[in-house]
Amino acid sequence: MMSWAEINTWLESTKSGNIASWVGLLASVVGFWATLLNVRKSKAASIQARQAALEVKRDMLHINAVVSITQALSLMEEVKRLHRDSNLVLLPDRYFAIKKILIELKSEHVVFEDQQRAVVQGAILHFKSFEKHTEKLIQKNKEIEDAPRLNGIVTTISESFQELLGYVKSKPRS
Q: In the chain, which end has fewer C-beta atoms inside a 10 angstrom radius, N or C?
């Protein structure tokens, strides 16, 4: 076996040390270049993943808006039946459920224009007023006397929401 001194002497005489240094430098440069390429690819993949996540979020907001409007319309139809039957006990809960859906819809859905947000806000105020009025009737042990008028208001709101549903369904998601 050769000693370190003999190895050093051999490297100096054959200039193998210089060659090894150049090969090491070349390997480092190639490795660094490959790392930069991989970083660039990773960045592009990250951007694509972020864009895909935003598309999924937009799609989810769109689907949630359709579901929320459909739920609100269904509850509005039930409220009209409860008005006709003068079933005061269930009405405050239904009014609250509608308000909750509409408040979430207004705050989460970004596709709405100002006029559509105003329609949602107006409906929230109507159902808030209905709830307050119904609570007073329950407290006084009275029945609904103006069911046709109330149902006319609910029908008008419902028609506005049918239009809103059509708008949301026809709006491109991307």
A: N
Q: How far is CA 100 from CA 63, 69, 157, in A?
A: 17, 12, 16
Tell me 7's DSSP state: H
Buried-exposed string 84-100: b where 16+ CB fall within 10 A, e elsewhere: eeeebeebbebbebbbe
- Residue of 163, 136, 47, 65 lying closest to 107 (CA atoms): 65
Give which of 84, 164, 96, 90 is closest to 129, Cα–Cα. Answer: 96
d(CA 12, CA 44): 48
Q: How far is CA 144 from CA 15, 17, 166, in A?
A: 106, 101, 33
95 and 117 Cβ atoms separated by less than 8 Å: no
What are the tens digits of pLDDT across the range 114-161?
888 899 999 999 999 999 999 999 999 998 888 999 999 999 999 999
SS3 163: helix
pTM of the entire predicted model: 0.71
DSSP string, 59-120: HHHHHHHHHHHHHHHHHHHHHHHHHHHT-TTTHHHHHHHHHHHHHHHHHH--S--HHHHHHH
DSSP 3-state of 141: coil
